[in-house]
Amino acid sequence: MSVSDKIAIFGMASVFSVTHALFAVAQEARAVTNPLAYMLQPITKSQGMLKTFEQSRETFPGEVLLDMNATYLDRQIYNPATARYDHVKLRGYQDARQTGLSGADTPLVGPTIDLRPGQTVRVTLHNLFPQDSTCGIGGGSANTPHCFNGTNLHSHGLWVNPSGNGDNVLISIRPGVSFQYEYNIAVEHPAGTFWYHPHLHGSTALQVSSGMSGALIIRGDRMPTPTETGDIDRLLKQPGGSDIAERVLVLQQIQYACTDNNGDITYDCQPGQVGGIESYDQFGPGSWPASGRFTSVNGQVLGQLALAEAGSVERWRMIHAGVRDTINFEIRRKTGTTAFRTLAAADTDRWIDQNCGKDTIPYGVVAQDGLTMAQVQMRQQAILQPGYRVDALVVLPGAGDYCIIDGAAPAAASVNQEAPSRRLLGIVTAVGGHAVNGEIGTYLQDWLISAAERTMSQNVAGKVIDDLKNEMSLSSFIPHPDIDAGEVTGEQQLVFNIDVKQPGATFFEVDGKPYDPNRIDRTLPLSGVDEWTLRSDFVSHPFHIHVNPFQIIKIVDAAGNDVSALGADDDGDPQYPGLKNVWKDTLWIKNPGTDPSARYTITVRTHYQRYIGEFVLHCHILDHEDQGMMQNIRITLPDGQGGTVSGHH
Ligand SMILES: [Cu+2]
């Protein structure tokens, strides 16, 4: 045998053993389970509670403490392109009381904060990051990303006090400093799916895309009455009375990178290297598809979701906790058998064609941004932009495997302004139960009606059932009544823009100005009811405003058509039809390109209820926010003469 023959055979054997090794690693699909909940320590009588409260503990759950570390985490993230677990060191959240959970295989997702209306939660946030060497970046310019180890906390979507130690994102918690936030969840706060993440201007995108986010769930059990609405949680019960199965799906884009021999960023991390996110070089248009990374579900890439039962109704709480991609959430039957754990991003589209069925499994969307909608909407695809939440009732119609897919979308509908190829998010397997042979929408409707018969009080059951029979209306469960035109007391205009015309610099602007931390951009009256007109002159941006959600009135395209009605056609883009009258806190403001005349005009209404103080609105492509696409808002008392009180007089 010649030497070259020996090499050839040896080479073959190596290929075999490498393939075998890849296969062995690829089998270790980790289970995607719901994130663990933070341990809550109740404040007890011995800590000073009045005796009278103890007698009504059930109706007054009182105060709870929660201990949260913001710290570097040494973890692994699966890399489907290489079938290896990449070693990463990323900023993340950790329950300070759950010290056992620190292994490299602990999922990179913040624990869930689980609360009830009427509860006060005190969240002690410990900044355990090292001293900061990045505060000098930009020479003190507010809109150059900087101070990557400073942090704070935002309870996205909660209707709580924005000032002081409430949901205050205008404070900086420096390395080594602890601060206790206090969220008073009003007894009338809607139950639903919210989330938390850091929000310090200058480091928000870097920290959130490192995996610093988690679910924040408000659970309610208020029964609707003939005059007041209740919580949909009360309806979503199994025949035995327990809650239906629930999946919390925190969808993140953890865009870690390594450096190559020249010190440049590469997404091709070698064994022995440690991936991280330590600069803003890796953000920007197209950076996410270019990275080849996969959106993770509860910290796992291409994981196996917990088992489902065929024919059972589950509640899926989807949270877009990422920064740089649009997610078009689809469920399809898995029809092929090709291993999915070894899968380069570029091959995913073909893999889905070969291994996932053509037909999507429709599901019933019941809430947007945590707020129960007026009607269950059957969807083939839910579109989640950064910051969005979608609650869906999902039925897997038979035993077997299902592909969870981030589907294709029109370029104008996506963060990267390019039609991204599809990505696999994970696999869910249904076992046992029973097959559903007819329309899933009809099956779900029948299930909801029987749930209403079982769960609703006699004085509302008839109304709830009639509603459900009438196109699955949920009028007894919506947290906010419509805001009628006659209630509107003022108007606000807003225009997003990226100014690329100035020599040498790009400016990220709202209303023609980059963010100025020392400027109040809008002073608005407490109890005022405003109609806002939202536009973008340069590409699309997800608008988010803190504290008070808004109701969508109309979404008008450049040709003057309102595309927000259920069943409307927005040039094949499914994200707007069905949003008319829906309440949200984050909304895509579309401009298909860079020509201001192509922009959409979006009208929403909101009211400023209960809480005064200063907070922000901004673009939820968080690197845009860090670079200036943000405004300060002040809610203040009216002066009684049509204006607002300014200063201290
Ligand atoms: Cu933006």
UniProtKB/TrEMBL annotation:
CDD domains linked: CuRO_1_Tth-MCO_like, CuRO_3_Tth-MCO_like
GO MF assignments: copper ion binding; oxidoreductase activity
InterPro entries: Cu-oxidase-like_N, Cu-oxidase_C, Cu-oxidase_fam, Cu_oxidase_CS, Cu_oxidase_Cu_BS, Cupredoxin
Pfam family, one: Cu-oxidase_3
Annotated ranges, domain Plastocyanin-like: 149-221, 493-633
Gene3D superfamilies: Cupredoxins - blue copper proteins
Keywords annotated in UniProt: Metal-binding, Oxidoreductase
Cited PANTHER family: MULTI-COPPER OXIDASE, MULTICOPPER OXIDASE
Name of this protein: L-ascorbate oxidase
Organism of this sequence: Rhizobium sophoriradicis
